[in-house]
Amino acid sequence: MSKTLLLVDDEADARAIATLALNLKTDWTILQAGSGQEALNISAEQSPDLILLDMMMPEMDGRTTLKKLKADPKTQTIPVILVTAKVQPLAQSQIDPADVVTVFVKPFRPLELADEIRAALNW
Fold first, then answer.
1. For the Response regulatory domain, which residue ranges apply (predicted)?
2. Which fold has domain 4-121?
3. Banded pLDDT at 115 (limits 50, 70, 90)
4. In this predicted structure, what is the pLDDT of residue 121?
Protein backbone atom coordinates (compact mmCIF):
# COMPACT_ATOMS: atom_id res chain seq x y z
CA MET A 1 0.00 0.00 0.00
CA SER A 2 1.34 3.40 -0.98
CA LYS A 3 2.21 5.95 1.68
CA THR A 4 1.10 9.58 1.78
CA LEU A 5 3.60 12.20 2.87
CA LEU A 6 2.97 15.88 3.58
CA LEU A 7 5.86 18.25 2.83
CA VAL A 8 5.59 21.51 4.76
CA ASP A 9 7.95 24.29 3.69
CA ASP A 10 7.34 27.95 2.89
CA GLU A 11 9.89 27.75 0.06
CA ALA A 12 8.18 26.47 -3.09
CA ASP A 13 11.52 25.47 -4.66
CA ALA A 14 12.40 23.28 -1.67
CA ARG A 15 9.00 21.56 -1.88
CA ALA A 16 9.39 21.04 -5.63
CA ILE A 17 12.88 19.53 -5.35
CA ALA A 18 11.88 17.19 -2.51
CA THR A 19 8.72 16.14 -4.37
CA LEU A 20 10.65 15.43 -7.56
CA ALA A 21 13.25 13.37 -5.69
CA LEU A 22 10.61 11.38 -3.80
CA ASN A 23 8.61 10.76 -6.98
CA LEU A 24 11.74 9.36 -8.64
CA LYS A 25 12.39 6.91 -5.79
CA THR A 26 8.93 6.00 -4.46
CA ASP A 27 5.28 5.48 -5.32
CA TRP A 28 4.22 7.66 -2.37
CA THR A 29 1.56 10.33 -2.72
CA ILE A 30 3.21 13.67 -1.96
CA LEU A 31 1.04 16.47 -0.58
CA GLN A 32 2.43 19.98 -0.16
CA ALA A 33 1.76 22.83 2.25
CA GLY A 34 3.38 26.26 2.09
CA SER A 35 2.50 27.29 5.65
CA GLY A 36 1.83 25.90 9.09
CA GLN A 37 -1.89 26.68 8.85
CA GLU A 38 -2.15 24.94 5.49
CA ALA A 39 -0.35 21.94 7.02
CA LEU A 40 -2.86 21.78 9.87
CA ASN A 41 -5.78 21.89 7.43
CA ILE A 42 -4.37 19.25 5.07
CA SER A 43 -3.33 16.97 7.94
CA ALA A 44 -6.79 17.03 9.49
CA GLU A 45 -8.48 16.35 6.14
CA GLN A 46 -6.05 13.88 4.53
CA SER A 47 -4.36 12.18 7.52
CA PRO A 48 -0.96 11.59 5.86
CA ASP A 49 1.33 8.75 6.96
CA LEU A 50 4.14 11.24 7.64
CA ILE A 51 4.68 14.98 7.90
CA LEU A 52 8.04 16.45 6.88
CA LEU A 53 7.93 19.81 8.68
CA ASP A 54 10.26 22.77 8.10
CA MET A 55 11.10 24.63 11.31
CA MET A 56 11.73 28.10 9.88
CA MET A 57 8.52 29.50 8.38
CA PRO A 58 6.88 32.93 8.62
CA GLU A 59 3.59 33.45 10.49
CA MET A 60 3.45 29.99 12.12
CA ASP A 61 6.83 28.34 12.61
CA GLY A 62 7.46 24.61 12.77
CA ARG A 63 7.47 24.49 16.57
CA THR A 64 4.01 26.08 16.78
CA THR A 65 2.70 23.90 13.96
CA LEU A 66 4.03 20.78 15.70
CA LYS A 67 2.35 21.75 19.00
CA LYS A 68 -0.98 22.23 17.23
CA LEU A 69 -0.63 18.93 15.36
CA LYS A 70 0.06 17.07 18.61
CA ALA A 71 -2.85 18.82 20.40
CA ASP A 72 -5.45 17.80 17.79
CA PRO A 73 -6.87 14.26 18.19
CA LYS A 74 -7.17 14.01 14.38
CA THR A 75 -3.45 14.60 13.83
CA GLN A 76 -1.64 13.79 17.08
CA THR A 77 -0.57 10.29 16.02
CA ILE A 78 0.87 11.30 12.62
CA PRO A 79 4.67 10.85 12.68
CA VAL A 80 6.62 14.09 12.14
CA ILE A 81 10.18 14.57 10.89
CA LEU A 82 11.51 18.08 11.46
CA VAL A 83 13.64 19.78 8.82
CA THR A 84 15.93 22.58 9.97
CA ALA A 85 18.98 24.53 8.90
CA LYS A 86 19.94 25.13 12.54
CA VAL A 87 21.63 22.27 14.33
CA GLN A 88 20.66 22.41 18.00
CA PRO A 89 19.36 19.94 20.55
CA LEU A 90 15.58 19.55 20.59
CA ALA A 91 15.49 20.66 24.23
CA GLN A 92 16.89 24.06 23.22
CA SER A 93 14.12 24.31 20.63
CA GLN A 94 11.51 23.67 23.33
CA ILE A 95 10.37 20.58 21.43
CA ASP A 96 9.54 17.32 23.14
CA PRO A 97 11.70 14.61 21.50
CA ALA A 98 8.74 12.22 21.87
CA ASP A 99 6.80 14.38 19.39
CA VAL A 100 9.19 13.79 16.48
CA VAL A 101 10.66 10.76 14.75
CA THR A 102 13.94 12.50 13.93
CA VAL A 103 15.42 15.74 12.61
CA PHE A 104 16.82 16.20 9.10
CA VAL A 105 19.34 19.00 8.64
CA LYS A 106 19.24 21.24 5.56
CA PRO A 107 20.63 21.13 3.06
CA PHE A 108 19.81 17.47 2.59
CA ARG A 109 20.62 15.36 -0.43
CA PRO A 110 17.30 15.10 -2.31
CA LEU A 111 18.04 11.72 -3.89
CA GLU A 112 18.79 10.24 -0.45
CA LEU A 113 15.63 11.64 1.13
CA ALA A 114 13.44 8.60 0.45
CA ASP A 115 16.03 6.22 1.93
CA GLU A 116 16.45 8.43 5.01
CA ILE A 117 12.67 8.50 5.54
CA ARG A 118 12.42 4.73 5.10
CA ALA A 119 15.22 4.20 7.63
CA ALA A 120 13.69 6.60 10.17
CA LEU A 121 10.25 4.97 9.97
CA ASN A 122 11.23 1.38 9.16
CA TRP A 123 9.15 1.52 5.96
1. 4-121
2. Rossmann fold (3.40.50)
3. very high
4. 94
